[in-house]
Amino acid sequence: MAKVRPLALAGLGLVLFFGLWEAASRLGLADETLLPRPSSLPATFLKELRSGIWQEALASSLSHYVLGLAIGAGVGVAMGVLTGMARSAEQLLAWVFRMLRPIPGLAWVPFAIIWFGVEAKAAVFIIAIGVFWIVYFATHGAIRAVDRDLVEVAEAFGFRSARARLLKIMLPAATPGILVGLRTALGQAWMAVVAAEIFGVPGLGQRMMQASSLLATDIVVVYMLTMALFYGLIDAGFVRLQDWLLRWRA
Predict the structure, then answer these.
(1) At CA 194, angle to CA 192 and CA 196, rounded to 5?
(2) Using alpha carbons only, how large is the chain's radius of gyration in Å?
(3) Label partner for 221 (CA 20 to 30 A): which of 72, 149, 170, 229?
(4) What is the reported pTM?
(5) Are 126 and 192 in contact (CB under 8 A)?
(6) CB under 8 Å to 6, separation ≥6 — which residues?
(7) In sequence order, which ranges of 145-216 are alpha helices (DSSP H)?
(8) How many CB atoms lie within 10 A of CB 218?
(9) Smallest Cα–Cα separation from 202: which of 66, 61, 48?
């Protein structure tokens, strides 16, 4: 019963949201050419589905998303661990990161096109950059926040090598903080997908831009809701994984 109530409230919230949206359109408070009513979207979705465009766009975006997320998160965790454990590495890279961090992902689009062309590699590059900074700072902070008493206890029990400290103490203790960064990166990666695909790489972003140029706002909203739905599923799956990985804290 305790689990049913949150689900019921979440469902009620969605019903109210779409109900108010539908009412605003039917009452003339919103121009349907600029913001289509929800009741018109199923027909638009079925049209995209039957044509095969939706499946192709989704498959392309998911491949860019997964690859960019994996690369950005992998490098972010590795660099965060390195600079978190080694002061010299942090000092070496400190001003490089301070210089690069404020540059938005969209600013890298011209270089992505020049280096990789209008291809999937360019989209993966843009997504990976957006993910890297989130995961890097989360990992770096989590490693630095590990209780130094734990490290001293580990050394007393014979875990004196850097590898032993990392695997037995640092990573297990820092995992909750790293997972928070990874969960944030899941959303950032989806937002970066559109930015990475608007310049012509096949995917959800490209299809949305094509539709917007024709003022087909119903198609744009269908793909926006597609991204929202799949992010919700991915986030829910990650929360389950996070709970399983941190079951030892219960």
Answers:
(1) 65
(2) 22
(3) 72
(4) 0.86
(5) yes
(6) none
(7) 148-156, 162-165, 171-197, 204-213
(8) 20
(9) 61
